[in-house]
Amino acid sequence: MPDVLARKLIDKAVIGSDGTELGTLSTLTMDPGTGELGDLLITPRSETAEQVDLERDDDGRYAVAIGRVQAVKDHIVVDR
After folding, report:
1. FRET partner for 3 with CA separation of 20 to 30 A, picked from 12, 19, 40, 70?
2. Three-state SS across 23-67?
3. CB neighbours of residue 78 within 10 Å
4. In this predicted structure, what is the pLDDT of residue 49?
5. Model pTM?
6. Measured distance CA(52)–CA(20) in Å, rounded
7. How much of the chain exceeds pLDDT 90, in percent?
8. Across all residues in the chain, what is the average pLDDT?
């Protein structure tokens, strides 16, 4: 996958590989010691928030491991 600046990803739509619209990218987590990316934190769409079975952080955002990203184009596709 080519390099993409994180600031260009914020507020980008995130969908599951099954076509479910999950929400918008809120932020990315990173280990400050290693610089390794951790999770995408996704603000859920209100229409699908109760139907999606993904881990959530303390603020109710979906936490999806960076390794589950399949594609980044007009939107971000994550493995479900």
Report:
1. 19
2. EEEEEEEECCCCCCEEEEEEEECCCCCCCCCCCECCCCCEEEEHH
3. 22
4. 58
5. 0.85
6. 8
7. 71
8. 89
Q: CA-CA distance, 5 to 42, in Å (whole number)? A: 17
Express each pLDDT in 34-55 by its tens digit.
999 999 999 998 766 567 888 9
What is each CA distance from 57 to 2, 26, 27, 40, in whole angstroms?
28, 12, 12, 11
16 — phi, psi (to 5°)? -80, 160
Q: Which single residue is written with the structure tokens 């859920």?
A: 44
In angstroms, what CA-CA distances link 72 with 5, 11, 12, 24, 29?
11, 13, 9, 13, 17
Question: What single-letter amino acid sits at 29?
Answer: T
Alpha-carbon gap, residue 60 to 56, rounded angstroms: 5
Q: What is the rounded distance in angstroms from the CA atom of residue 5 to the CA atom of residue 22?
A: 21
